Amino acid sequence: MKVDMTLLIPVAFYLALMYALALWSSRGLARSSNFMEEYFIGGRTMGGLVLAMTLVATYTSASSFIGGPGVAYTMGLGWVLLAVTQVPTAWLTLGVLGKRFAIIGRRIGAVNINDFLWARYRSKAVVFCGSLSLVLFFIAAMVAQFIGGARLFESLTGLDYHLGLILFALSVVLYTTVGGFRAVALTDTVQGFVMMIGTVAILWGTIRAGGGVGPIMETLYRTDPALLTPFGPGNFIAKPYILSFWVLVCFAVIGLPHTAVRCMGYRDARSMHQAIFIGTFVMGFLMLGMHLCGVFGRAVLPGLTVGDRIMPELTLHVLPPLWAGVFLAGPLAAIMSTVDSQLILASATLVKDLFVRYGGPGEPLPAPREEKLRRAGFATTALLGLIVFGASLKPPSLIVWINLFAFGGLEAAFLWPLVLGLYWRRANSAGALASMVAGVTAFFLLTVHVKKFLGMHVIVPTLAIALAAFVTVSLATKAPDEATLAPFWED
Amino acid sequence: MAPDSRGRGRFRQADREALYALILALLNFAWWYLTAYGLGSGPVESYRYILGFPAWFFMSSIVGFLLFSFLAAAMVRFLFKDMPLDSERATGK
């Protein structure tokens, strides 16, 4: 391979920085008296910038940097229109879960979504279903991310797939295990900036290579006029389909556990206000920028066919090696920042479920238990990471499918129990359980047997079924008792 | 009402903020839909262009993104209120 190794310089520099941040965070961990709060939610000290960056970086994954722009290459501007449906996610998740969620989270000492579900529904079955869906869908999502990252590394450097996998998979597992949530949030922040720089670099390079936006659009028009319409070639992006993405990647994102948990980890109201502004801007910028690159790429470098290879090829074509390395660091950052958040939350779920009986949430633990928890926390995080790594060694072929599937499954399980638990007094455990079971089952069955429902993504009927199940069963069974509701409604 | 110094009324304010966030997202959807399909549904030959982009795309995706980033900032600046989040401070224990 004729690969210039200067490409690896920014990547190596970047990985070194990640390790440094993890070590720095672990010092805070050693000093902390409450391991759970510190390891799994960073002691609730995130400021506005860190909150915004960790929210965006957790959400933007391999598909935003590799898969999505690859589709935009084939589909044209219509696919960018689809991608910008994600602009409101930052203010929606932070705003709708809102201060109510942050206040309650502190009151009940919650460090993950299951703590919240337990305090609200007092049902082992609900928590069990939550843990099961979370760990299963997270493992699926993480495998997809690892494979995506390793493939990217492979096609950009020409080095072996497994070498790429080992290099960054082990990096993620190591810094997450050592540094906990604080390391995750801090590295996410750096990764957010790296993604922004990567996006600017490739966008600038592509526009320059194409001779400006006007000429690029002319070339696209000559290639296929449909690339310039909202509907795409062959009317692929039909209205019902694109409209259902407002549900899948915008409104229902409120229910994703790994972004939701960030909504109870910030320091104060001002941090949240700042994060809404910064997060919205960064999110929109990344989505718009990356997907536009895919569209422009069609004019600059026509004739590519394999979706996932388009962005790497384009990068090598329009950027000098050092800058290509900066770009490579961008999606690697996106992937790592998603995986690390899922890893720490999956670990929090298992540790809390295995080691902490849900006695009195928020009570400080006696010292020997604290020490045990500490070791269990490290071990679980590392073990989960290694499982995912193992599964990625022999990559299955349908990774994009797996990723979107995990996304929808998490929304099916968590959106209504979270949102209705916060805003509907009458919501009870039977309703939440019915909603989770019906939602996840419907999602499985619809995905396998129906694929598209009246032209929409199956997430739309899934969430409708889950909502119907929640409301009907809640109303048919007894209202939750006042003692349980108190921390959620008493001001 | 803004929450008082001991934090009473926090939930009422928080609920109102959640509603604003939801409304802003719906407004964003309306803008996105109307500009994209209002300007982009005709034949490609009749498209107008702004800074090289088709007008429907420029308005829906580029202006839409910038406009709603600005509106989100305005929303937290003027409609969201600072409040204590810790229960101890709020209940005055």
Give me some keywords for this one.
heterodimer, A: 491 residues, mainly alpha, two-stranded antiparallel sheet, globular, B: 93 residues, 3 helices, 4% strand, elongated
Explain this structure to me?
- The complex is a heterodimer of chains A (491) and B (93).
- Chain A has 491 residues and is an all-alpha fold.
- Chain A contains 20 helices and two strands.
- Chain A has helices spanning 8-31, 35-41, 48-59, 62-75, 77-83, 89-107, 113-121, 124-157, 161-210, 213-223, 239-248, 257-260, 269-300, 310-318, 321-355, 367-393, 399-423, 429-449, 459-476, 482-489, and strands spanning 452-453, 456-457.
- Chain A has a two-stranded antiparallel sheet.
- Chain A is globular.
- Residues 357-365 of chain A have low confidence and may be disordered.
- Chain B has 93 residues and is mostly helical.
- Chain B has a domain at 23-83.
- Chain B is 65% helix and 4% strand.
- Chain B has three helices and two strands; from the N terminus they run αββαα.
- Chain B has a two-stranded antiparallel sheet.
- The radius of gyration of chain B is 20 Å and the shape is elongated.
- Residues 89-93 of chain B have low confidence and may be disordered.
- Classes of the chains: A mainly alpha (491), B mainly alpha (93).
- At the A-B interface, α5, α6, α10 and α13 of A face α1, β2 and α2 of B.
Assign an overall shape of chain A. globular
Order of helices and strands of chain B: HEEHH
Q: Rg of chain B to the nearest angstrom?
A: 20 Å
Question: CATH topology of chain A, anyone?
Answer: Sodium/glucose cotransporter
Contiguous uncertain segments of 5+ residues of chain A:
357-365
The total number of structural domains of chain A is 1
CATH class assignment of chain A: Mainly Alpha
Tell me, rounded to a whole number, the average pLDDT of chain A. 85
The number of helical runs of chain A is: 20
| Strand/helix succession of chain A | HHHHHHHHHHHHHHHHHHEEHH
- The quaternary organization reads as heterodimer
Strands of the biggest beta sheet of chain A: in what spatial order?
A: 1-2
Q: Helicity of chain B, in percent?
A: 55-70%
DSSP helical segment count of chain B: 3
Q: Identify low-pLDDT runs of chain B.
A: 89-93
Give me the CATH architecture of chain A, please.
Up-down Bundle
Strand percentage of chain A, roughly? under 5%
